[in-house]
Every structure is written in structure tokens, then in C-alpha cells.
Amino acid sequence: MSADRARRRSPSLLPYLLIGPTVLALVLVLGYPLVDMVTLAFQDMTREQLFSGTSPPWAGLDQFRRILGDGFFWTVVARTVLFTGVCVVLTMLCGLVTALQMHRVSPWVRAVMSAVLVTVWAMPVMVAGSIFRWLFDADYGVVNWVLSTLPGVDLSRHNWFTDPWQGFAVIVAVVVWGSLPFAAITLRAALAQVPPELEESAVLDGAGPLQILRLITLPVIKPVFLMVTTLTAIWDFGVFNQIWLMRGGQPEREYYLLGVYSFIESFAVNRYSTGAAIALVTVVLLLAGSVVYLRQMLRTGEIE
Length: 304
What we know:
Blueprint: H1 2-9, H2 14-41, H3 47-52, H4 62-68, H5 71-104, H6 107-122, H7 125-135, H8 142-148, H9 164-191, H10 196-204, H11 209-237, H12 241-246, H13 258-268, H14 272-299
């Protein structure tokens, strides 16, 4: 009896063997580039070392002193944080509204909505960026033509990217449009786990729709909501493709986010170590956000 109980308590190697290949693939695919980036951030790589294949000299913390002492770097950080916050709030708000609509419509309407969302989700970023760039084109854009039909509005040949605030509004629309399907479909699955008897009891007690949402629905789906919010923030914090495509591969300094800034420093200015240092700071900031997410999950009891 005691031997059987001891066997049951002893840890099994089977789970570790099952996830072993996945962990090994992640280490090979992600681990080596990450280590190489960290190493490069503490060196001074130039085109001479790149083409000759010689080892670059060590620079210690010089790259970090350079970027952390640069006011433009902190401007880019603040811009990235603001951009991420706006995108996350809009994505989660639109995703929650869409999920609530999908939860209440008939099955065939829900199927159509799911098909549309999956189609949007499957669309490559390059295609989505090209479509939005055409929609907001100064000469042939549909948005300018539609808005110009309104009384007192003349947006013919209006360039939305002359003003960075307007330009970022367009880029935010592209990012939210691409992130909405994941948020909506995931939150719709979470809403299916809300016990209907709780909502029925609340209705009998005289609760309104907003009270039911705040007191019943949101607490039940909170773990999933936090997960989607965190993943969306991580993705939006590293936005690069949308800006690069919308600005035709030549983004102005007013459109620099951390991902764009790191790329420009590395491959346009050829300051490879500076670009690596910016990328490393970006990773640290993302890890800090992940820690906040894990703490929230621990508080909600999702992680034992």
C-alpha cells in the first residue's frame, strides 16, 4: 500500500519527455538569436567587422549610456507606450463588444461573423497595410472621397501622414483591425463559460445589462481577458511592419517606435550594436509587462 502511494507521489518523466522537443526547438530558434543580440549589445560592431568576419571589440555599457542619455530615445519610448496603450484599449473594447454580439446572435449569424473574423485574421500584414494605404491615399483614397461628400468637408488630396497624429490614427486603425479577430474570438469562447443561471438570477433581481456585465460577466472572464490584454500589449509594443508598409519603407523620425528605431539604427545607419541595445531594452520592457501579467494571474488563482 505504501509502495503504491509512493509511486503515485513520485514525479513522472513523461510530461517532460513530451514537451522536450518543443523546448529544444524554442531554444534553438529563439535562444541563439537572443544570446547573440545580448552579446552584440555589449560590443561595437561596425561594417568593417561585419564584412571581414573579425570579432568586434567589447564596448561594455557604452551603447546603453549612449541611448539612455539620448532624449530622442525617451521620446520614442514614450511614443511607443502611448501607441501601445491606445491600440490595446481600442482592441479590447472592440473585441469585447464584438464578442458580446456574437454571444447573443443566432448560430448562423455567429458562424458568419466568425468566418469574417478568421478571414481578417488570416490576411497577411503586407496585404492589410497595402489596402489601408490605398484607402487613405491622398490622390485616390476612398476615405478622402467619402468624407468629402459630407457638407462643408473638403479632403481632396489630403495627406493623412503630414500630421503625425493623423498618421498614427491610421496606423492604429491598421493594428486594431488586425488584432480584433483574436480578441473577439477568444473572449467569445470565454463568454460561453459564464453560467447562464447567474445572468438569469441577476435579471430577476432587477439588474441591468451594464450591471450584469460589470458584476457577473467580467469577473468570470477576467483570467482570459488579462491573457488577451497582455498578449495584445506585447504584440503592439513591437509593431514594425504596419509602420514600415504605411510609410513606404522610409518612416520619418516622427513615426519611430522602438521596433522601427532599432531597425533603422542597425540596418540604415549601420550602428548594429546600438540597434541591438535598443532591442534589448525593448525586451526588458516587455518582460516587465509579462511580470505584471503573471502577478495578476497569481492573484486570480490561475497559477497554483
